[in-house]
Write a structure and sequence with these properties.
This protein is of the alpha+beta class and 239 residues long. It folds into two domains: 133 residues, no CATH class; 70 residues. Helices cover 38% and strands 17% of the residues. The chain is built from seven helices and nine strands; from the N terminus they run βαββββααααααββββ. The strands form three sheets. The protein has a four-stranded antiparallel sheet. Strand 6 and strand 7 form a beta hairpin. Helix 1 crosses helix 3. The chain is globular and about 60 Å long. The two termini are 38 Å apart.
């Protein structure tokens, strides 16, 4: 994996973002790193940001841990933590580095992680607006004469995150239905029986079909997505 010193400008995602991105946790076997324990609260918040956080810039491929002797753990996402004018950017592997290799992230980063508002909240969006990244994106949109605005870009990220969360919930619901079938030798026979199995998923629509069943999970009041799964088709669709 590409190495950057902690808190140094990070040009991994393009030179245009170097001024706003500060690297944290870009480790390799050729450079020493700081040992320490950020504490369980920081680790838990990092894990949540790795799962829920917006991927403001994406690269195909993965990071491989070169500190491991045999089984080189891989990760594909990155953490983007807004902090004033900058973003701290870390590979998802930072969780592995902390847990398995004793890495101690900088205090500034840990503090930013703890202070980061919930992903998708008004506070989170406002924190993104304050960064130099937002200024760069706005300037690019103007120079390229794009019809999109910065608000459009943020809405796109918000929608992508909602879709990701929706798919995760939908897969869990499907697993619950399949567990019911394994225990009872059949799928739920009615919407009432399905609701008893999937009570924690809220509003849903369910019916048996020739190929198995059709399950629809509603979105939220703010984002009325519909996630639909037909057991014969083996995939979810979001409408």
């Amino acid at each position: 994996m590409t190495h950057f010193e902690d808190l140094s400008p990070c040009d991994y995602f393009g030179e245009e973002y170097t001024a706003t991105f500060r690297a944290v946790g870009w480790l390799d076997e050729c450079h020493p790193y700081t040992n320490g324990d950020p504490g369980p609260e920081v680790f838990a918040k990092m894990a949540k940001l790795a799962t829920d956080g917006w991927q403001l810039v994406k690269f195909m491929g993965w990071h491989s841990c070169t500190l491991c002797r045999y089984d080189h753990t891989r990760s594909v996402r990155n953490l983007f933590v807004p902090a004033g004018k900058v973003f701290y950017v870390a590979p998802e592997a930072i969780l592995h580095y902390v847990a398995a290799h004793g890495y101690g992230p900088p205090h500034e980063f840990c503090q930013a992680v703890l202070e980061c508002p919930p992903v998708g909240s008004d506070g989170y969006i406002e924190a993104i607006r304050e960064t130099e990244w937002a200024t760069v994106v706005h300037r690019q949109l103007v120079e390229d004469e794009e019809e999109l605005t910065l608000d459009d870009i943020l809405r796109i990220h918000h929608g992508a995150q909602l879709s990701s969360v929706a798919f995760s919930a939908a897969k869990l619901a499907r697993d619950e239905i399949e567990a019911f079938r394994h225990l009872n030798g059949r799928y739920p026979a009615s919407i009432q029986e399905a609701q008893s199995v999937l009570a924690r998923f809220g509003d849903l629509r369910y019916q048996l079909s020739d190929e198995g069943y059709v399950l629809e999970l509603g979105g939220t009041a703010e984002e009325p997505l519909v996630d639909r799964y037909a057991s014969g088709s083996k995939f979810w669709t979001i409408q």
